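Posting this for the archive.
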Amino acid sequence: MDDKDKHVIKKIYLHIVAVLEYCEKVSSLEEFRGNKMRVEACIFNLM
């Protein structure tokens, strides 16, 4: 694996970690859906 591949994998990993942190204290789908800022932050990190 070259450095470019490692960089891409690290970037993907950091986005996954960010999404997990945004969702860490959410107890239900309804709670998640009700927080527009959280939803948009997750969507942004998935792009």
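The chain has one domain: 3-46. Residues 3-46 form one domain.
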